[in-house]
Amino acid sequence: MSVQDYLDKHMLSRKIEDAVNAAVRAKTSDPVLFISNHMKKAVSSVITKVKARQILDSRGVPTVEVDLFTNKGMFRASVPSGDSSAMYEAVELRDGDKGIYLGNAVTKAVKNINEKISEALVGMDPTVQPQIDQAMIDLDKTEKKCELGANAILAVSIAACRAGAAEKEVPLYKHIADIYGKANSTLPVPAFTVISGGKHSANSLPVQDIMILPTGAGKFEEALQMGSETYHHLKAVITEKYGANGCNVGEDGGFTPDISRQVLLLSLTILIFHMIDECSLPLNSVREGFDIVREAIGRTGYNDKIKIGIGVAATEFCIGTKYDLEFKSPNKSGQNFKSGDDMIQMYKDLCSDYPIASIEDPFDKEDWEHSKRFCSLGLCQVIGDDLLMSNPKRIERAINESACNSLLLKINQIGTVTEAVEVVKMAKDARWGVAVSHRFGETDDSFIADFAVAVGAGQIKAGAPCRGERLTKYNQYLQCNHFLAHQHKSKDESKGLDKAIDEINEIFLQLLRIEQELGDHAVYAGEDWRL
Is 190 helix (H, G, I), strand (E, B) or coil? Predict the structure, then answer.
């Protein structure tokens, strides 16, 4: 075949002429580069290969990372992991060999991607997210993704979503908004974890975390500033009251002062002289947590602009139909088992005494009756986490029974981007709030940041304003118009709070960039955080 025949067969002469004309119209100073890019855009993107590997999450536990290749580039994603029971959620596939990573290795999931999922997706258009996700669901053939593993499927789903955004030459959040069907682009209110308790910390605080929500901020930059300042004032308060050891942090960056021990010593002294009811001790420890957070907020001067949230995770200390607020105490009194009615009264009292805007999982995941009764009081947002597990059937039941009024969405509990979008639609149609959440085993993948913006979630829960794998979620809001390949990553999560201070400075630099880029188009959920 002659050169001319080759040009004619592929219509290259016309395509090259079109590219040259475009370069002339653009008055480009680098015509070769311009023409090259112009020709590249003329070719549709297709998936050419999917390659997975095992990496470690923020807790040192194996998880899945994926590189998805198209004829136009490589797109990476990694997935988090959590401690949920998998009773109602999609299943993380792990090897189970106790001799390797204590049974937590994910080489089976990696193999499924490299050998099965890759073959099924090669040749597909990365912009058709629903078809890509459905192809993997059909390949798995199980309700909870037990065959391929939800960790395998989700990692590929997120990587494909990034490839689709790149093909359309739009930011990731805009591509997800197209999938969602609405152009919301609303920056959510961050629910910063400031005190960690429950089973994820070594202190005696029974509830899992105490959070602050800067609902009174005018923009995300201001909200992040409020969160950071409050966090560091809280460090000072804790140091004064409990000593420097109280400033150790939990898995998601919240401080872990041993509040209960200090309260216990004080209360025992009072008990000796005034014979108080010792059954009030666990409640006093929770109140002490609220008190020191409120003191930190007071030192910032943001009193009316910051609300308090509490993640109870009551399933962790529910025994039968009772709630053991001393479940972490080695010396249980045996008198601190609360009934569901007792818990409702406790929450009512707390909401009366503190600016509590949100309570997450106030009851056991099967205690529908007390969840419904408490939600009907309308005291605050009632978020379903363990109650729902991002499961469409559980969400539908909760909507029908009014068991809660907000969804805590953990994307890895459902397993694909498309299915996550659908459950958000369910919640929004019911006029619920939506909070997009991290997991305790995190990576530096910031996908949930773009997702929360795209679906107009109004809230995001990504831990404390420290630690690289938490900060990257917040960082992404500051650079929404940049592709993730250029995103700053923390390379050392273990250096603690001093390192976090340096990372916070980088956050503000990136905040200024996003403010300049979005200008008047930047919208912060603020007081409309539940809409």
Answer: strand
- Give the amino acid at 486: H
Measuring CA to CA, which residue among 472, 479, 473, 476 is closest to residue 513?
A: 479
For residues 200 and 257, give the distance between their C-alpha atoms in angstroms, rounded to a whole number.
13
Angle, nearest 10°, between helix axes 129-140 and 417-429? 110
Express each pLDDT in 323-353 by its tens digit.
998 888 777 666 678 999 999 999 999 999 9
User: Residue 12: phi, psi to the nearest 5?
Assistant: -70, -35
Question: Which residues does 261 contact at the CB level (< 8 Å), separation at least 6?
Answer: 203, 204
Of 145, 307, 338, 410, which residue is the catalytic one? 410
Q: Which two tokens stand for residue 170?
A: 């739009």
Provide CB contacts within 8 A for 525, sequence distance 6+.
186, 187, 188, 189, 456, 458, 459, 531
Q: For residue 58, which of 215, 250, 227 has the smallest C-alpha distance?
A: 250
What are 24's two structure tokens?
A: 């002339």
Q: The tokens 């005018």 sit on which residue?
A: 218
Which has the closest alpha carbon to 257: 266, 246, 248, 249?
A: 246
Q: Which DSSP helix (H) or strand (E) runs through 310?
A: strand 307-311
Residues, the chain: 531
Which tokens belong to 102? 């204590």
Q: What are 461's two structure tokens?
A: 């829960």
Active site residue 322: no
Instruction: List the one residue out of 227, 205, 206 whose CA is nearest residue 215.
Output: 227
173 near 450, Cβ under 8 Å?
yes
**CA neighbor of 288 nearest in space, from 246, 323, 330, 339:** 246
254-309 pLDDT tens trace = 999 987 555 444 444 444 444 434 444 445 678 999 999 999 999 999 999 999 99
Whether residue 166 is predicted with pLDDT greater than 90 in this model: the reply is yes
Q: At 398, list the tokens.
A: 């909760």
**CB within 8 Å of 460: residues ≥ 6 apart:** 188, 189, 190, 191, 435, 436, 437, 448, 449, 452, 473
6 exposed, middle or buried (CB, 10 Å; 0-12, 13-18, 19+)?
exposed
Phi-psi region of 415 (alpha: psi -120 to 50; beta: other; left: phi over 0): left
CA distances to 104, 161, 186, 364 from 165, in Å: 32, 6, 18, 40
**How many whole angstroms separate alpha carbon 63 and alpha carbon 79?**
7
How far is Cα 384 from Cα 374, in angstroms, rounded to an integer? 12
Its pTM stands at 0.85
Assess whether 410 carries a catalytic annotation.
Answer: yes
Q: Tokens at residue 135, please?
A: 């192809």
Catalytic residue among 252, 364, 444, 445: 252
